[in-house]
Known about the structure:
It is a single chain. By secondary structure, this protein is an alpha+beta fold. It contains six helices and six strands, in the order ββαααααββββα. It has helices at residues 21-33, 39-43, 49-61, 68-77, 84-112, 178-181, and strands spanning 5-6, 12-13, 123-126, 135-142, 149-154, 165-168. Strands 3-4-5-6 form a four-stranded antiparallel beta sheet, with no helix packed on it. Strand 4 and strand 5 form a beta hairpin. Helix 4 (68-77) crosses helix 5.
Amino acid sequence: MTNPLYNKDGVAVPKRPEYSDELITATVKAELEKGRIFRATLAKNPNGDIIDKLAKDFAEVWHDGADAYEIAKELESQGYSVNTQVVDDIECLDGAIFSAHSKATKKWLELHQPVPPFEVGARLMIERYNTFEPEHGTIESIYECRPATYSVIIDGTPEGKNTRRLIDFEDAVLEPTSEDHNK
């Protein structure tokens, strides 16, 4: 679920940056042009025309959370020569993509300054990844290390345990109250 966000003046904020093909392709292309990764592939194509193709092909198979070996196998099925160095290079690209996305998200935050839709202490209903039963939790704080994100204590978390769920502002859903059920 994605809720609209607004800045302090009530102006709608555009969606936060995603891991788009454009972001991935541009990042991979920039890293390839440095010449430190995929050296064997680049050496076989000294005129540089492989850079655009490899960046595009990489963007097609990459997804957030993908394993470097999994991506290497996908690239191999497309005709690329793959070895352990390529897997290491993919891990470097993964870090570069994460960094580019993080920079884009920080720029989005600075430019649009979304206001948190809910206050610290509000109760949220959180969709679980592996079941249809939602979890419930309380907003503990605004998470400082990731833009426009809540740090939420999930109900049942043992006392003294520092585990928190990170929920983007736009994905936060208020827990229904008893008044909501009576309507």
